[in-house]
User: Which sequence fits this backbone?
């Protein structure tokens, strides 16, 4: 396989427009994410979409019958999604909210760049973080 040479020119996108994630169950996914992302902006039998800031997150039903595959956060591909809050108080409130909702989550941890976060997994095992920016 030949390596592509990009040269010295660069271009950078201005925003993350959307993220698309394949899930096993649209209704279960909507129920889980709506607890902390609010109402979805679009939903049908194969898709539910949320908006966080300017970024849309598409959760799509798996197009194959292979729903036996399990998500592996340590495999090739996406490791996690980090949602942000501004203050430590907000982070503590989020951790308490998740616990009250029956969502198993970590204690508040300090990341390698010095910011605190709480991690938890969605119903498909996708790792999520609430990160104090």
Assistant:
């Amino acid at each position: 396989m030949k390596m592509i040479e990009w040269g010295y020119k660069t271009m950078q996108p201005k925003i993350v427009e959307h993220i698309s994630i394949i899930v096993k169950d649209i209704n279960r996914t909507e129920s889980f994410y709506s607890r902390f992302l609010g109402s979805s902006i679009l939903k049908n039998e194969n898709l539910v979409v949320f908006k966080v800031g300017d970024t849309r997150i598409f959760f799509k039903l798996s197009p194959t019958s292979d729903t036996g595959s399990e998500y592996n956060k340590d495999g090739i591909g996406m490791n996690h999604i980090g949602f942000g809050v501004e203050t430590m108080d907000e982070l503590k409130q989020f951790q308490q909210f998740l616990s009250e909702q029956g969502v198993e989550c970590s204690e508040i941890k300090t990341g390698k760049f010095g910011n605190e976060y709480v991690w938890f997994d969605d119903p498909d095992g996708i790792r999520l973080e609430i990160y104090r920016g």
The mean pLDDT is 89.
